[in-house]
Amino acid sequence: MRNHNPVARFYSLAPTRTRAIEAKCAECMGCTKDHLEKGFKKEIRNCTALSCALYFFRPYQISEKIPPQ
Ligand code: SF4
Predict the structure, then answer these.
(1) pTM summary value
(2) CA 31, CA 6: separation in Å to the nearest integer?
């Protein structure tokens, strides 16, 4: 069964860039290995921290927000 906690998933599976970004954004919204903050996916989607290096790479966003390559 898939682990729905991005922080726990990062520490329990082989580390990848995607898992690292998912875990960092989840931690930013208050999640830990043992705790999922209610509504964290929506908060990451609605993140307004344009100055954050992960802003354009954060998970759960609507694809139109990703700038063209
Ligand atoms: S992109 Fe937003 S949610 Fe993700 S780490 Fe940066 S500030 Fe936090």
Answers:
(1) 0.88
(2) 9
